[in-house]
């Protein structure tokens, strides 16, 4: 019997500084438990993290790079969403 | 740890592709944008990178063999722990790189099979034997040193997943070079026999290490495409010269002699090395190096002997998935 290709998993790690889980790469494993063990060995050999998520790569829905404009351009013109858009008199001090 | 500039770029086959898309792609490269897996890219760019990244991955995996040879014979527990960690890192580097190559559309199984079938190359340097403990020091110092020279510019490669993998690799690589040099310092401060062993290792590794940078610029025909695509940022000869200039003072510190009597320092301070024996390089690449057959046999044996593990893991996963479906149906 031919062995099926081993599924791919995406690995996310939360580092010790309290930031969110961050994508670090991918790996192959037959099931979730083996994926977690492999992620530990491949991505945290030097204390890179305190928590690991593994997600089947097939479960990810990605935006289409060709539609980048439609997705992200609308935000570019809305500079009033940033604090620096507003003027506060100098006498008021830091706000 | 090791990429080798054997990687020739595919000649661009533009007439088959949308000229507009190709121009837009080149404009993105020129603007130092990173190309990501789902972006449009010329077929030749995809093919060149798949070959280069997978060869790099194979090199990491085969590279575990010459060093693994000394794990059980390391002189102290400290050295053994370090060597074990280093070999483990090489495996990790291979895995990061395979993952990067896979984003271009080939499966891991296809990539590995191409190597086992002898269709894909790996770095020529791993076809040399590790005869003494000093070879482990020399590999860390010189082979990893040369690899770092090659890999630092790759952290800025135009293909995002490759560049990101290289950043991780480079971070870990510095330990490899330092542990190697520490071994050399210890041997060179030791007995006459130890120092002679260090010199012998340098004599055997020096020229093969210079070959790691690939053929001389005059002889490599395709590197201009790789340069245009910003896969390659420096030429083979530029990197080789940089490596030699960095290494000569390190050898002097050790009190070792570089086995090149013709080497001179020019007015600008560069160390000019003698002609490299490119016939040896071609022979090793063609499969006729001292250890080519051993390395391939070891990889094939490991792959075959691991087959039952892959099969067992796959059937366990299938059984569990089936049980879950059955439970969900109840």
Question: How would you describe what is shown here?
Answer:
- The complex is a heterodimer of chains A (95) and B (330).
- By secondary structure, chain A is an alpha+beta fold.
- In chain A, 22% of the residues lie in helices and 21% in strands.
- A three-stranded antiparallel β-sheet of chain A has the order 2-1-3, with helices on one face.
- The termini of chain A are far apart.
- The model of chain A has no long low-confidence stretch (mean pLDDT 90).
- Chain B is an all-alpha fold and 330 residues long.
- In chain B, 65% of the residues lie in helices and 1% in strands.
- Chain B is built from 13 helices and two strands; from the N terminus they run ααααααααααββααα.
- Chain B has a two-stranded antiparallel sheet.
- In chain B, helix 4 (77-102) packs antiparallel against helix 7 and helix 6 (133-154) packs antiparallel against helix 7.
- Chain B is globular and about 75 Å long.
- The termini of chain B are far apart.
- Chain A binds chain B through residues 1, 3-6, 8, 25-31, 34, 41-42, 45-46, 62, 64-66, and chain B through 36, 38-40, 85, 88-89, 92, 95-96, 99, 102, 107-109, 164-165, 168, 172, 307, 310-311, 313-314, 316-317, 320.
List keywords for this structure.
heterodimer; A: 95 residues; alpha+beta; 2 helices; 3 strands; 21% strand; elongated; B: 330 residues; mainly alpha; two-stranded antiparallel sheet; 13 helices; globular
């Amino acid at each position: 019997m031919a062995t099926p290709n081993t599924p791919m998993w995406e690995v996310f790690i939360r580092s010790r500084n309290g930031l969110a889980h961050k994508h670090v790469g991918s790996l192959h494993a037959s099931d979730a438990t083996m994926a977690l063990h492999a992620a530990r060995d491949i991505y945290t050999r030097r204390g890179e993290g305190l928590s690991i998520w593994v997600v089947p790569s097939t479960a990810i829905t990605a935006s289409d790079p060709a539609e980048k404009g439609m997705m992200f351009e609308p935000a570019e013109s809305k500079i009033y969403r940033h604090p620096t858009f507003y003027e506060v008199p100098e006498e008021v001090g830091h706000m | 740890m090791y990429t080798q500039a054997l990687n020739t770029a595919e000649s661009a086959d533009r007439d088959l592709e949308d000229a507009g898309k190709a121009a837009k792609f080149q404009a993105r490269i020129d603007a130092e944008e990173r190309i990501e897996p789902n972006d449009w890219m010329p077929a030749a760019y995809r093919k060149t990178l798949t070959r280069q990244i997978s060869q790099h991955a194979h090199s990491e995996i085969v590279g575990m063999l010459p060093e693994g040879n000394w794990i059980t014979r390391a002189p102290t527990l400290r050295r053994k722990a370090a060597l074990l960690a280093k070999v483990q890192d090489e495996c990790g580097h291979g895995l990061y790189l395979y993952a990067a190559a896979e984003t271009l559309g080939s499966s891991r199984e296809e990539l590995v099979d191409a190597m086992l079938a002898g269709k894909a190359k790996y770095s020529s340097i791993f076809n040399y034997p590790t005869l003494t403990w000093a070879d482990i020091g020399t590999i860390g110092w010189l082979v990893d040193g040369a690899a770092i020279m090659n890999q630092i510019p790759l952290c800025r490669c135009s293909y995002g997943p490759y560049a990101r993998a290289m950043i991780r690799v480079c971070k870990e690589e510095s330990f490899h070079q330092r542990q190697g040099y520490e071994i050399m310092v210890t041997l060179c401060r030791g007995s006459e026999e130890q120092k002679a062993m260090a010199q012998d290792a340098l004599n055997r590794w020096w020229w093969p290490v210079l070959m790691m940078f690939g053929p001389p610029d005059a002889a490599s025909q395709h590197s201009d495409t790789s340069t245009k695509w910003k896969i390659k940022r420096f030429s083979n000869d530029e990197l080789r010269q940089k490596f030699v200039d960095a290494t000569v003072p390190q050898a002097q510190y050790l009190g070792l002699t570089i086995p090149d009597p013709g080497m001179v320092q020019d007015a600008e301070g560069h160390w000019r090395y003698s002609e490299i024996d490119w016939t040896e390089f071609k022979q090793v690449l063609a499969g006729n190096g001292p250890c080519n057959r051993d390395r391939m046999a070891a990889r094939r044996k490991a792959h075959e002997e691991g087959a039952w593990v892959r099969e067992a893991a796959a059937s366990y996963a299938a059984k569990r998935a089936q049980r879950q479906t059955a439970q969900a149906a109840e």
